[in-house]
Amino acid sequence: MELLIAANPNPDSKLPFLLRVPIAGGLVFRTSGTWPRATALYCHPVSADEWPADPDIVERATLRSCARRGAAIDLVLDRGRENRSQIVFTRARGRDMVFWQSPRTRRQARPNVRTPTARAAGLADLEIVVDTREQYAYRFASQQVTTVQRALPAGDYGLVHDGRLVASVERKSLPDLVSSLTGGTLRYAVAELSALPRAAVVVEDRYSAVFKLDRIRPAVVADGLAELQIRWPSVPLVFCESRQLAEEWTYRFLAAAHTWARDEHATIDRLASATVEETDLATAPAAPEPSTAEVRAWARANQLTVPDRGKLKPEIWDAWRNAHRPS
After folding, report:
1. How far is CA 160 from the centre of its chain?
2. What is residue 295's three-state secondary structure?
3. pTM for this one?
4. Which of 38, 88, 98, 314 could in theory staple to 43 by disulfide, Cβ–Cβ 3.0 to 4.6 A?
5. Which residues lie below 8 Å from residue 78, measured CB to CB, with a gap of 6+?
6. Cβ–Cβ < 8 Å for 174, 210
């Protein structure tokens, strides 16, 4: 029993994937993604005949369980991570709809708050630059925002004033935060952000979730986050409860930065001329060496043998430096 995801052969469809669920003879949906990682995915049910005779399979996953429970289909995949999801049949905006959601997106969809619709800093419209490498980008659909995609030298969402990048926000889910922290890439990212006049890292989860991690010692992550704040105090780490609230915080932060940049002409004249056309920040400070605990965690994640405590061999440090050498 398998869950199959294929490329949609219809080039005119806005939903690029076909999802086939092995229940009731095989249910087929058009959908926009291969897994509901950042948000619930809309699924458009279609006839089973729309499944191609020779499908271009994008992802194939063995199912441990596939069962209909009321208005939902529960899926349990035979893998360690991202293994549980639901296909929910519901009604919204006066019509029947189907959504594919995971436990994470279900929690994020219900933060039990209503975000304000008032304009941030009184701005009728705010242009936010979204990095071209950003996946599942914020849409700022409920706010007065215009988004443009361009390559940013630092962060995922930026504010450009007079051709200069004056503020940027790096977005992190908790799994991404942990992997980039233990892998060492977060140090370089924060170092680059610190070269900007205003910058921050926003996390789409609670700080308490750090202490519920089971694949890495929570103390390693907590110590690493504290060290980042000590080394680069100008780049705050902000934990928001959900993706929705992180998006709202990003909007308010960049709107405040717009007002500051507009009003502080004397400050703007002294800014470094970091433009969005640059591919890196020559003025960014070099990232310091990681702690032994971080290198030990990285080595184990890459199947290198290291002791539980004490010093690491020089070849382990050399392997870490080679893996994180700037390209």
Report:
1. 22
2. helix
3. 0.54
4. 98
5. 61, 62, 63, 64
6. yes
Give dist(CA 176, CA 188) in Å, integer.
Answer: 15
- Rounded Cα–Cα distance for residues 115 and 74 (Å): 30
Q: How far apart are CA 320 and CA 309, in angstroms?
A: 17
**Who's near 290: CB < 8 A, 6+ residues apart?**
184, 187, 298, 320
Rounded alpha-carbon distances, angstroms, from residue 59 to 5, 20, 35, 149? 5, 11, 10, 28
Measure the CA–CA gap between 299 and 84, rounded to whole angstroms: 29
Per-residue tokens: 317: 């440090």
Q: 98-131 pLDDT, tens per residue?
A: 889 888 766 555 555 667 777 777 788 899 999 9
β-bridge mates for residue 73, sequence order: 68, 87
CB burial string 224-256: b at 16+ within 10 A, e below: bbebbeeebeebebebbbbbbbbbbbbbebbbb
Q: How distant is the alpha carbon of residue 228 from its chain centre? A: 19
In sequence order, the β-bridge partners of residue 239 are 203
* pLDDT above 90: residue 190: yes
Q: Max alpha carbon distance in the chain (Å)?
A: 69
Residues in Cβ contact with 216 at an 8 Å cutoff, skipping those fewer than 6 apart: 178, 182, 297
